[in-house]
Write a structure and sequence with these properties.
The protein folds into 3 domains: 152 residues, Rossmann fold (3-Layer(aba) Sandwich); 204 residues, Nitrogenase molybdenum iron protein domain (Rossmann fold, 3-Layer(aba) Sandwich); 30 residues, no CATH class. The chain is 45% helix and 17% strand. A hairpin with a 4-residue loop joins strand 2 and strand 3.
Length: 430
């Protein structure tokens, strides 16, 4: 891994390098994605089936696009029962955590005859996209579906690319069934996003699309935003470990590689005040890369976006972490809780040497759908809030409006909106 002393210039150069991974930087794919979306809008199912055969080499028809109950039952016979139990344990933790985020409608009545409030309503229909390419992610199924279930969404449908034989990964089906998915469609890529956004004869239009995917999926979500809501345009995975001389170098190296193995564009960064730890971590990383699978992916990730940053003190280390605003931030220091209070920007914060990043990915309960590419400065993890909408409630009686009606008329007049003013005025004509 590249070791760099932190300076203003090195920090700026690093951020510019990391931002190159943003899906919005890949304009050469946008035209192709736009063509796919336009084709699905015009030809609906016909385009959907054609693209599925072209990109996934699987034949899908109106009769077979929907996964059957029998296929889901068969999936349980193909998945290790022990894994099914682990999925159920993870589900319980995720539900318990997200239930604490639940919001309720509220109303505030006053003696003057007014009532103000907020009505919280779940979304009617949500589409969850589940990838089916380089790896299978049942954990993502749980993390995207369960907050929607807790929020009370009426209908949750899932799209996922089929394998060449037209089937869907069994573990994906099991996780979806355990999470409570209503319908599963075997279709993926930008064409699936278009189908969810605009609807076809087989796939209904949704109100919101969530879930990770490749560059085509990310750009398709960006393109349909406004026709439907989306969670975010997610970039490649990231981890930043903030550590001092007390950290175990073997733990740190292992945690860095837990993200580097996702794909060649993943980012793994150590920010430390200890040169000795930096050297030890670098050696441990090399050892692990030689031992573990996905060696080529990890090595490319480290070569392009793997860094060890040396800070003169913890204050500079924290400032750097806040500037990078990583998706995952681990704090492995002598006083991790004290350091945590100084962190302003991070998707998820893992405190102490036994709170490794995969704990959050799979099991602890907080959502693993997190802001990437520095967007943790203004975005939050996926939550129950993403699956509700709020309506303001306003009620005034004549008695409540009368004392303030002249104020409103003057306000409207100041903006030269005479019809606004008249709407109030007519209620108090002689």
């Amino acid at each position: 891994m590249k070791t760099i002393q932190i300076t203003e210039e090195s920090r700026k150069n690093l951020q510019e390098q990391l931002l190159k991974r943003n899906p919005s930087s890949y304009g050469e794919f946008e035209e192709q994605v736009a063509q796919i979306i336009d084709e699905v809008k015009k030809k609906k199912d016909q385009a959907l089936f054609s693209f599925t055969e072209r990109f996934d080499h699987a034949v899908v028809t109106a009769d077979t696009i929907l996964v059957t109950k029998e296929e889901i039952e068969e999936a349980y016979t193909l998945v290790d029962p022990e894994l099914v139990e682990i999925i159920r344990k993870a589900k319980a933790n995720i539900v318990e955590y997200h239930e604490k985020q639940r919001q309720y409608s509220w109303f505030d009545s006053k003696p003057n005859g007014s009532m103000l409030g907020q009505k919280v309503t779940p979304l009617k229909r949500v589409g969850v996209y589940v990838p089916g390419g380089k790896a299978v992610y049942p954990s993502s199924v749980l993390m995207n579906v369960l907050p929607a279930k807790v929020a009370g969404v009426d209908e949750i449908i899932m799209t996922t690319p089929p394998m060449r034989d037209g089937k869907v990964y069994p573990v994906t089906l099991v996780a979806a069934n355990e999470a409570g998915i209503d319908r599963i469609y075997r279709v993926g890529g930008a064409q699936a996003i278009a189908a969810l956004a605009f609807g076809t004869e087989s796939v209904p239009k949704v109100d919101k699309i969530v879930g990770p995917g490749n560059i085509y999926v990310a750009l398709a979500k960006k393109a349909v935003y406004g026709h439907v809501s989306i969670d975010s345009i997610a970039g490649p995975s990231e981890i930043l470990v903030l550590a001092d001389e007390t950290a175990n170098p073997r733990f740190v190296a292992a945690d860095l590689l837990s993200q580097a193995e996702h794909d060649e564009m993943a980012s793994a960064i150590l920010v430390t005040t200890s040169r000795e730890l930096a050297e030890q971590v670098s050696k441990e990383v090399d050892r692990f890369v030689a031992e573990l699978s996905r060696t080529e992916i990890m090595q490319k990730s480290l070569d392009q976006y793997g860094y060890i940053l040396l800070a003169k003190d913890m204050e500079e280390a924290v400032e750097t972490a806040n500037e990078i605003a990583s998706e995952h931030l681990e704090i492995i220091t002598a006083n991790p809780f004290e350091v945590m209070t100084k962190i302003r920007n991070a998707g998820a914060i893992f405190i102490g040497e036994y709170s490794s990043e995969p704990l959050g990915d799979y099991f602890a309960g907080p959502n693993h759908v997190l802001p990437t590419n520095g967007t943790a400065k203004f975005f939050s993890p996926l939550s129950v809030d993403d699956f509700i909408k709020k309506s303001s409630i306003i009620y005034y009686s004549r008695e409540a409006l009368e004392p303030v009606h002249e104020d409103i008329i003057k306000f409207a007049a100041a903006e030269q909106l005479t019809a606004h003013a008249n709407s109030i005025k007519v209620r108090f004509e002689e």
